User: Fold these one by one.
Assistant:
Number 1:
Amino acid sequence: MSEQGSPQPEPRGRMSAQAVSRAIRDDVINGVHRPGQRLTEEAMAARYGVSRVPVREALRTLEAEGFLHSRPYAGIAVVELDDGEAEDLLEVRALLEPLGAARAALRRTPEQLGRLKELVALGQDAVAGDRLAEVARLNSRFHEVIAEASGSRTLTQLVTQLSQKIAWVYSVQLPRRAADSWSEHAEIVRALELGDEELARSLVARHIDRARSAYRRRTNVVYDS
Amino acid sequence: MSEQGSPQPEPRGRMSAQAVSRAIRDDVINGVHRPGQRLTEEAMAARYGVSRVPVREALRTLEAEGFLHSRPYAGIAVVELDDGEAEDLLEVRALLEPLGAARAALRRTPEQLGRLKELVALGQDAVAGDRLAEVARLNSRFHEVIAEASGSRTLTQLVTQLSQKIAWVYSVQLPRRAADSWSEHAEIVRALELGDEELARSLVARHIDRARSAYRRRTNVVYDS
DNA sequence: GGTGCGACGATTGTATTCAATCGAGGTGAG
DNA sequence: CTCACCTCGATTGAATACAATCGTCGCACC
């Protein structure tokens, strides 16, 4: 454990348990807390400027989401990523997201469509500006919003977990990025706007297939999703 | 909120946070806490014989798992099940579990095979003895063990969440049960023992399809999975 | 010199206490 | 009579304090 130079790395006012949860999750996804690293409650409390109680609640949440692992009295640590983990995540996503997209084409609200367009704009902007962490975050959010638009709470929850984990895997394992996927995102939004169920389904399926093969080649396209 | 006659309904010694989490989850699945019902921290603390702190941690865990829903200062309540929720769960499971079964056929250990055989025996016994809650629990466990045997942490986590939710949906919405599915379970175990990937995949796919159509007919087979 | 045992420090788990916020019920003015 | 406002009770959110447990280091003993 290295000494902590800065107690509050992001002093965005005093955080509550939910905010602590988000902050720790972001720090895990962005590699601030590395896989296998042990997270002591007191260190987290100091880091985020709260007491141990909200920290514990946040850690339980993240444990349930699969980012952390704990055993009684043995402490809590960041999950170690298996080699096959990334491929598993992409394979499962390849099963789930086309289904969600097809439903979203039928059920999306105008508000959701607007948010998606906004996300595409922000994403393309972040790509142009080379802001990697922001690209990853927007990517996850994009797929989460589509899942929400499917109207299925089950799909929403699962896709949200998956896309966050995928962003994590990418950021930890691959320090590169891709730009093209955001034009595919724009295509997907258009299909949703048209309400074309099968087009949305196939576009998302192809989109994710490309991400998978790009990942397999370990080259170029990353942060794709 | 009716008055609490019995402070500790299951006095299995003093519970810790993890045990409280399991206990509340079981009570939700078995309909003790009904959908929409608000769960105050103090009532839970009294019910399970601990203070509010471990209760809060358990509630955060269950919230992340999707059984409960909370908003700041608005309290925490059992999620209300949509009408389409059950079908969504079954549809997603129909996508995921055949994949898990195929992998399990290749990677299952002898220990896991033994546990599955034991579960089949226990399940058939519980069916014969008409112990509904136990049948549901064993059902979930059976599918969870197969997912574990797939060697994919992603699949394990998702299938575990799904099977528990499905047990919940069934127990809340349908007060009937089925016996036959356990003979199908036995068939699946045999395929895993043979190491036949495609047989395992197709048996699980058919198994879940039957559960889905049974559910749609709203008759006979329940607690099937 | 190696090994087993025991005490200490560190960390987690829980309880108690206090502060912040929300909603319901009452009260008074219009 | 209706509605706005305000006060109060209840509940959640957070901090502090205390107890239980684990790992490690050191020492005695074999």
Note: Confidence is low (pLDDT under 50) at residues 1-12, 219-223 of chain B.
Number 2:
Amino acid sequence: MPNTHLLISWYRRSYRPLPWRQTTDPYLIWISEIILQQTRVNQGNPYYHRFIERFPTVIALASASEADVMMQWQGLGYYSRARNLHKAAQTIVAKYNGQIPETSAELITLSGIGPYTANAVASIAFKEPSPAIDGNVMRVIARYFSADDVINSRGLKKLCDNTVRAMMKDHHPGDVNQALMELGAMICRPTTPLCNECPIQPGCSSFRTGSQAVYPVPAKRAKPKNRYFVYLVLTSNNLSSQDIILKKRTKGDIWQGLYDFPLIETTNVPTDSDVYKSSLWTSLLPDFQPALSHATYLKHQLTHQTLHCWFIRQTADLIPDGIDNAEYLKIPIDLLHHYPFPRLIQRYFDQKQIKSHADN
DNA sequence: GAAACGTGGTT
DNA sequence: TAACCAAGTTT
């Protein structure tokens, strides 16, 4: 087992004074843990500041509209985090009188809170001795013991759980968890770990055998799949305003709760024939003959998908009011900044110099 | 329990 | 450039 005294003493003199480490407010600690899921500190930091300024308390968050919450989250990714956060806030108000539950067992019942986050909040905010096992901790422990179990495997998680639990005997559980995560982030890094500065180098199996690059054993991941999107960017000059047609993304696919445009998806690289014969055009804009040669192409890379996107822009004299139905939304371009968009759409707006104020 | 879910920095 | 991966959770 790593020497906890050396680890904690290193942490106390080297930790980064991150904003969520300057508070004991469980709400703020909870928010930071959700934002930091699969997200680097530098990426999440500005979102954290804006989010807690807009929603300073669990009451404020629970009272907000889902659209408001999504607006704050746009551009950060993994948008189910925002929906679940909102839902959990409402549960806390309704079932816990607005007080954040203090035990891991209660926390894990809330939307968006899994084993890691429940133990992180319970240990940091309420001193519950519960190991918060994230990617950093698994890397540190896998190297320390030269564990052959694959990252994220049941076996490695169990080893981490047992080890960290033992380390918490005589120390603040929140400090032990944070120290191990900080060690993984700053010293026991994925590549080129700084073993000469490591407080638990004594006893580290991978340091002793020079096998730092072997552990943790990585999981194999699937190749991204190609998808082909053809967007219709339909604008019009109506009497009082310039309008644009949007579509809200629904469940069962990427970017749920955010907005994009009317869309055709093809199974291969689209052809003019594919595009022309789609019924989308006849429902939205009869007599329009779209041509891919005039489209703006953007490639967008996600973890599991490579998006190939063509944007066909068309201005109509007048968009019928009937289009503004449950499926499609007609809004003045001036109000674009009230709607949350994924990065792909923000990139398109930026390129076309359409003011979206969708900037983060 | 494998696969899906975003984005951006690093290698 | 493509691959990796970062304070995970949900289905």
Note: Residues 32-41, 43-44, 78, 80-81, 84, 111-117, 120, 132, 134-137, 152, 177-178, 181-182, 184-185, 190-191, 218, 221, 301, 303 of chain A lie near DNA strand C (CB under 10 Å from a C1').
